[in-house]
Write a structure and sequence with these properties.
- By secondary structure, the chain is an alpha/beta fold.
- It has a single domain, classed as Response regulator (Rossmann fold, 3-Layer(aba) Sandwich).
- The chain is built from seven helices and five strands; from the N terminus they run H-E-H-E-H-E-H-H-E-H-E-H.
């Protein structure tokens, strides 16, 4: 039995990609979300683009490092190549100004470390349309 997982979210088959070069962060986020979602670890944008041909994601978590490397154009590229997923940027602590810039540039949300399982699941549920904003 999965603890804290509602059966309706566990079977609605939403796909998430976690795109981060850091293997530990990818694994941690995948672990937090895999009970309620089909969650895949993507070590690179190229991997994600290749897999999205057959498995387009509904939601993508991208690292701060990738966002910094590619700039605000990254969001449009991801939406085009991965067929329109929602995008969350995972940021280091204290990145308030960067978080505002990410949102202004086109990210749907940000997640600031340290990441907590209940907040990550709630963020995923909100962006996947499972929860109302006020819930």
């Amino acid at each position: 039995m999965q603890i804290g997982v509602e059966s309706n979210t566990a079977v609605d088959n939403k796909r998430i990609f976690v795109i981060d070069e850091d293997e530990i962060i990818r694994a941690a986020i995948q672990f937090m979300l895999h009970d309620e979602n089909e969650t895949h670890e993507a070590p690179s944008l190229e991997w994600a683009y290749e897999k999205a041909v057959d498995w387009p994601p509904d939601l993508v978590f991208v690292s701060e490092a990738l966002m910094r490397r590619h700039g605000g154009a990254l969001y449009g590229e991801i939406r085009e190549r991965l067929r329109g997923p929602k995008i969350v940027v995972v940021l280091e602590p204290g990145a308030v100004d960067l978080a505002k810039q990410c949102l202004a540039d086109g990210a749907d949300s940000v997640a600031i470390k340290p990441l907590r399982i209940e907040l990550m699941r709630r963020k995923a549920d909100l962006l996947l349309g499972r929860l109302a904003e006020s819930a």
